[in-house]
């Protein structure tokens, strides 16, 4: 059978590569038609093929069609013609090629249906109007049902047989001398002609255009033709609204997708690696410690754990518009649980979060069990002693050198002695009452912060630096801070705790044994315990009066400690050293007054004002439901420090960039807001504010505002 | 942050520690819808919260079709009733420079500020500035200084108006950590100063705003990745309390300011 085999060959005499679906479709459509049994008389086929005649006859064809359109009996056959012409662009050129005859049969719908006739008329009009547009040519592809070519073909075949007599004469004027000649008498060879048919001028133009579109550049493998097909497929698949307005973006993304294929499923996405690692670490938090009887574990869990109920505090804080998201709070709870398992912890509390430049710190306030923590303390002290001893031999060497030099010249010895170092407080007392652990994200390792020394506190009051997020980063400032970021962090935590840790009045009470105040150097009682008879204060009262809140941490003196220590009281070793050197002149200046601070459990109403503003702001969390709302106290001195109380539960937290608020900025500003720099500078003339808990008698300025 | 995706945005921005209580959130969801209807805005953004001593201000902004057109700012004390603020002017900005301290929380509160007359050593003029005016200029300053969007979220049409880019699929992870992928959400100031060589690499439909790279002082932005790589948070160090968040490879992005409305003038010393 020449026809089935020739049909495809005829199709591809015009060399064009077809995109998958289109080309395949044309193949498929032709195949079933080609497989049409031989019952279809060759005659019929040849007639129809012959009738399509020269491709250049399309305009004339249209004319003939329009003429013939009025003839109802020819309509169906003409629709076939039209479909043929319309099908031409489906992977082919504009003009109706012979193999399209097969396809049009496929697309010839039931003549009984009016819709098909309507569409054919439409297509006829469209063809008449815009033959050059690729879109119109593509359109019929989407009208085409993919199914059952055969059935349509069968039905059409039956109808065609009716028209056979009338289609003896081709509607195509066969006046093109260059066109291939097809005589009706030729049977079976119409799709095959011995010579390669010359492409018609329109054919040629389209071939050239398409070949140009299929060009790929040196830079990429993607040709414009392929890209346009991808783009249009994407648009038609996704069907966005108003695609014209986003055409450029779609264009760009289509191109991008071509070159960035999705990775295969065997490899992990390298960019998401850190996210996966973090997720793994946090997953470890969620998995309970394995081993052991499950029942036993549950019982142990049900007992009192050291870890507080973070979720409850988070809930209350959320009422106060403060706090991390609830899933973050839960992760923090799990991380605290992990900390408790790793360290010998007696009590534990989530202190808060401090934001840094590159990462933030989650701080946990912890008290060790008795006797546990001292090992590390001793290690720290030993290191310090070693450092001090290392320095002393140097001093000896210097003296030796000077003796030698005395012969030549006497180098005057400096008279200045550094001020005596205030000893740091013992652990579990004063500023070092609690131990602090930090980590950057829940799931990561908890790092312990060293104890704070008074010198660090004093210096921390004078400087303001951002935290970078790495504990070993140096703190470069003036006056130079003695320590690295871990020490600075600890110092700030100490200051914030001392200034802002408050509780409702009556929750804590002093122990029954009261020492003599004078003997203790004016530091007052420094221990308190929970009041078992505490019945919460009504929320409204908590909001109205600041006297209902008290500080329960010790105030830090200007010296940097909570209990005052006279730095002049030297140990015996130091006194011996003094006798060796001649320093009596200095002793006159070293008389220091004893520093006294407010005693423990003083109410907030005693706090000094900042800038004519109360250092605390109280608020009811929700004005719409005052019965159930929570009293919130916000510190104006340390923005970010919040406390809430509701009934018997209360909690403090600090979520902040840890800088105190102050009266006026450190920088200069022109007097009248004009931008002329020549007007001269004027320092703001506000008096130094009296800050409640960290008075610094030597400073005349204070660091400026840093709100949260 | 867009009022449409308010809940998700609040969750993502919660890392800074300050958010909204449930009752405020619920109130916002309803009232912002009504604001959008009444004022016929194209988009309504919840700008943030300015903390005052007595009360807090909740600020929202409404945008028209052209995203870069001047925005309308509204404030509310209870998240239900919103009042329109007057637009900011230069003159107001200069007056504000002399007012310091916290916001009171009362829009009709008047700050008294004596202006020293240099030329005539006579009466010092006492200028009274209303808190509402101060609010306007502070919001304007913050907007001009730190309101940011990721690159590609807006695009400029050839006719001029700037529209939301519907095909914005988020910044790729390689770009999310760079300051150059974020633009200021205001009229560009520094674009003309770019050299021709730089301009050649730009795409005029996407790169029509100032990027954050050349902000002064350098280092006034802190970029952090939370949860491994899946959330980018930018915090401004110049206006503490301003947080911008973006989930790379998704469309979610937004910013919120929760703070006292005071600029951090000490920034160069703190870095």
UniProtKB/TrEMBL annotation, chain A:
Keyword Ribosomal protein assigned: no
Superkingdom to which the source organism belongs: Eukaryota
Compositional bias segments (type: Polar residues): 8-17, 44-64
Annotated keywords: Cell projection, Cilium, Coiled coil, Cytoplasm, Cytoskeleton
An annotated GO BP: axoneme assembly
Principal cellular location given in the protein's record: cytoplasm
Residue ranges the record marks as coiled coil: 568-595
GO cellular component: radial spoke
Subcellular localization: Cytoplasm, Cytoskeleton, Cilium axoneme
Keyword hit for Oxidoreductase: no
Region (Disordered): 1-64, 146-179
Name of the protein in question: Radial spoke head protein 6 homolog A isoform X3
Taxonomic lineage of the native organism: Eukaryota, Metazoa, Chordata, Craniata, Vertebrata
Gene designation per UniProt: Rsph6a
UniProtKB/TrEMBL annotation, chain B:
Cellular location(s): Cell projection, Kinocilium; Cytoplasm, Cytoskeleton, Flagellum axoneme
Keyword Disulfide bond: no
GO CC, any one term: radial spoke
Domain of life of the source: Eukaryota
Keyword Cytoplasm: yes
PANTHER family: MITOCHONDRIAL RIBOSOMAL PROTEIN S18, RADIAL SPOKE HEAD PROTEIN 9 HOMOLOG
Protein name: Radial spoke head protein 9 homolog
Organism field: Heterocephalus glaber
């Amino acid at each position: 059978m020449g026809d089935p085999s020739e049909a495809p060959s005829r199709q591809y005499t015009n060399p064009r590569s077809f995109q998958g679906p289109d080309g395949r479709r044309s193949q498929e459509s032709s195949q079933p038609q080609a497989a049409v049994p031989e019952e279809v008389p060759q005659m019929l086929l040849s007639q129809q093929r012959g009738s399509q005649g020269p491709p250049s006859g399309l305009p004339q064809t249209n004319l003939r069609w329009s003429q013939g359109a009025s003839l109802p009996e020819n309509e169906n056959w003409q629709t076939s013609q039209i479909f043929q012409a319309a099908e031409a662009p489906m992977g082919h050129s504009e003009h109706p090629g012979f193999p399209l005859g097969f396809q049009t049969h496929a697309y010839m719908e039931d003549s009984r249906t009016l819709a098909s006739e309507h569409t054919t008329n439409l297509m006829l009009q469209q063809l008449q109007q815009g033959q050059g547009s690729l879109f119109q040519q593509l359109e019929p592809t989407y009208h085409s049902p993919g199914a059952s070519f055969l059935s349509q073909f069968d039905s059409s075949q039956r109808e065609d047989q009716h028209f056979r007599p009338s289609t003896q004469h081709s509607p195509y004027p066969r006046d093109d001398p260059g066109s291939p000649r097809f005589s009706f008498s030729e049977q079976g060879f119409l799709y095959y002609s011995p010579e390669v048919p010359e492409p018609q001028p329109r054919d040629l133009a389209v071939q050239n255009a398409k070949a140009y579109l299929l060009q790929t550049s040196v830079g990429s493998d993607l040709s414009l033709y392929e890209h346009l097909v991808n783009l249009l497929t994407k648009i038609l698949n996704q069907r966005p609204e108003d695609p014209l307005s986003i055409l450029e973006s779609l264009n760009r993304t289509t191109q991008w997708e071509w070159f960035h294929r999705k990775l295969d499923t065997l490899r992990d996405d390298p960019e998401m690696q850190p996210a996966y690692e973090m997720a793994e670490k946090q997953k470890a938090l969620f998995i309970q410690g394995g081993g052991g009887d499950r029942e036993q574990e549950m019982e142990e869990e049900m007992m009192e754990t050291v870890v507080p109920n973070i979720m409850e505090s988070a809930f209350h804080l959320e009422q106060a518009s403060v706090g991390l998201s609830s899933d973050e709070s839960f992760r923090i709870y799990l991380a605290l649980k992990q900390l408790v398992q790793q360290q010998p912890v007696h009590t534990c509390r989530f202190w808060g979060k401090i934001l840094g430049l590159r990462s933030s710190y989650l701080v946990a306030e912890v008290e060790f069990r008795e006797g546990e923590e001292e090992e590390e303390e001793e290690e720290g002290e030993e290191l310090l002693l070693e450092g001090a001893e290392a320095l002393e031999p140097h001093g000896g060497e210097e003296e030796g050198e000077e003796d030698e030099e005395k012969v030549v010249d006497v180098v005057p010895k400096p008279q200045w002695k550094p001020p005596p170092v205030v000893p740091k407080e013992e652990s579990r007392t004063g500023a070092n009452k609690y131990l602090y652990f930090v980590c950057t994200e829940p799931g990561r390792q908890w790092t312990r912060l060293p104890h704070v020394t008074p010198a660090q506190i004093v210096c921390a009051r004078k400087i303001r630096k951002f935290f970078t997020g790495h504990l070993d980063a140096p703190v470069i400032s003036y006056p130079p801070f003695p320590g690295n970021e871990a020490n600075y962090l600890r110092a700030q935590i100490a200051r914030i705790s001392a200034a802002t840790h408050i509780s409702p009045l009556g929750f804590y009470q002093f122990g029954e044994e009261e020492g003599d105040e004078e003997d203790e150097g004016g530091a007052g009682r420094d221990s308190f315990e929970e009041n078992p008879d505490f019945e919460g204060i009504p929320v409204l009262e908590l909001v109205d009066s600041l006297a209902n809140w008290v500080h329960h941490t010790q105030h830090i003196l200007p010296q940097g400690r909570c209990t005052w220590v006279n730095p002049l009281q030297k140990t015996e070793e130091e006194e011996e050293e003094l006798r060796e050197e001649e320093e009596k002149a200095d002793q006159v200046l070293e008389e220091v007054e004893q520093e006294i601070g407010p005693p423990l459990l003083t109410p907030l109403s005693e706090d000094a004002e900042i800038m004519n503003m109360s250092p605390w702001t109280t608020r009811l969390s929700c004005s719409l439901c005052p019965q159930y709302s929570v009293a919130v106290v916000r510190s104006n001195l340390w923005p970010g420090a919040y406390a809430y109380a509701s009934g018997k539960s209360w909690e403090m937290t600090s979520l902040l960039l840890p800088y105190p608020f102050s009266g006026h900025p450190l920088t200069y500003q022109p007097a009248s807001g004009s931008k002329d720099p020549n007007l001269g500078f004027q320092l703001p003339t506000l008096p130094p504010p009296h800050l409640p808990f960290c008075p610094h008698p030597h400073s005349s300025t204070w660091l400026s505002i840093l709100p949260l | 942050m867009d009022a449409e995706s308010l809940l998700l945005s609040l969750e993502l921005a919660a890392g800074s520690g300050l958010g909204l209580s449930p009752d405020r959130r619920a109130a916002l969801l309803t009232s912002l819808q009504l604001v959008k209807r009444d004022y016929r805005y194209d988009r309504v953004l919840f700008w943030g919260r300015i903390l005052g001593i007595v009360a807090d201000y909740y600020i929202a902004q409404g945008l028209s079709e052209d995203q870069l057109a001047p925005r309308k700012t509204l404030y509310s004390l209870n998240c239900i009733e919103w009042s329109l603020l007057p637009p900011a002017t230069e003159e107001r900005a200069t007056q504000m420079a002399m007012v310091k301290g916290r916001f009171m929380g009362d829009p009709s509160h008047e700050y008294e500020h004596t202006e020293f007359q240099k030329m005539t050593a006579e009466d010092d003029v006492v200028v009274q500035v209303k808190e509402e005016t101060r609010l306007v200029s502070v919001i304007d300053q913050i907007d001009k200084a730190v309101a940011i969007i990721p690159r590609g979220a807006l695009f400029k049409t050839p006719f001029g108006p700037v529209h939301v880019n519907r095909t914005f699929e988020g910044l790729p992870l390689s770009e999310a950590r760079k300051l150059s992928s974020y633009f200021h959400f205001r009229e560009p100031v520094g674009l003309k100063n770019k050299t021709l060589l730089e301009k050649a690499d730009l795409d005029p439909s996407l790169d029509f705003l100032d990027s954050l790279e050349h902000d002064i002082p350098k280092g006034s932005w802190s970029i952090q990745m939370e949860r491994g790589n899946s959330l980018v948070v930018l915090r401004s160090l110049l206006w503490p309390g301003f947080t911008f968040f973006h989930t790379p490879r998704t469309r979610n992005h937004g910013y919120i300011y929760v703070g006292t409305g005071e600029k951090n003038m000490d920034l160069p010393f703190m870095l």
